Amino acid sequence: MMWFAKRVALSLLLVWMVATMAFGAIHLVPGDPAEIMLSEGGFAPDPSAVAALREELGLDRPLVEQYADWLRGLARGELGHSLLDQEPVDELIGRRLPRTLELILAATVFAALVGVPLGVLAAVRRGGLLDRTLNGFAAVFDGMPVFVIATLMILVLARQLEWVSTGGYVPFAENPSAHVKLLMMPAIAIGLGFAAVVLRMTRAAVLDTLNRDFVRTARSKGASPLRILVHHALRNALMPVVTVVTLHMGAMLGGTVLTEFVFNWPGISSMMVDAVNSRDYPVVVGTLFVIAAIFVALNLAVDLLYGMIDPRVRA
């Protein structure tokens, strides 16, 4: 029980440290939010108007006081208000976050459906032409930046072949088929590199399991190759694959910025980029806090699951 409590406490501490560093870092970025908000047509705003707006927004107070206010709001479950329109940050995130999570979930499903079967095939055909071909494709897509994949998909599939739209967003309730079509492109763009990681991990895990003693025992008892692969090797090899998939999902929360930008997908990452450009401090800090909390929660879930399965981990 002490091990579980310690892991939870360390996770909460990590989230607080990330939020604190984000709070300090965004205030170090050059640019005054009040000046940016009052700038029009490239002309410098009146200094008195800037000073008045800074006072109205509370930006003239010491940074320590602003941080203390943010912590008090966080204790009440509040993330502050946007400097631009005074809308609650939690409501802004609540509208955008489901879209990013939907994108990540679709990319994860695609990566699992592609990566796991191909990884098993590569392991079964180890050293053969199929294994070398699949490993070559995995190396290419794993090392290719996601914005390159996204740009190539738009140029080929949308512009030249005209099979799909170049991007955009339609609510599912408004038009389900259009929503799914617009979701497929960014999900596949993210999922291709993810599928390469899953393929390599599945191949390595299956090969490692096939060399275990219990698999050799099953062979000596006359079990068929298919039964050995499905009931012995694959079931025991899936645990590290699930771990990699779970942790990669958390990492993708902060890595969908370029994809959302290229495909005009209105998720949480594109909102954070806009907030950084406008120096909307509460939105930036609140978004980073939510992303860090989700990522740490996924890591904590994996740690606790391992601890329950294998007591040696708790030691």
TrEMBL record:
The record, for InterPro entries, names: BPD_transp_1_N, MetI-like, MetI-like_sf
Could you tell me which residue ranges the ABC transmembrane type-1 domain spans?
97-306
Q: A single Pfam family, by name?
A: BPD_transp_1
Q: How does it sit in the membrane?
A: Multi-pass membrane protein
**Subcellular location, record wording:** Cell membrane
Q: Primary place of residence?
A: membrane
The family classification in the record reads: Belongs to the binding-protein-dependent transport system permease family.
This protein is called ABC transporter permease
Q: Where are the transmembrane segments?
A: 103-124, 136-158, 178-199, 237-263, 283-306
Q: Which CDD domains match?
A: TM_PBP2
Q: Which PANTHER family match?
A: DIPEPTIDE TRANSPORT SYSTEM PERMEASE PROTEIN DPPB-RELATED
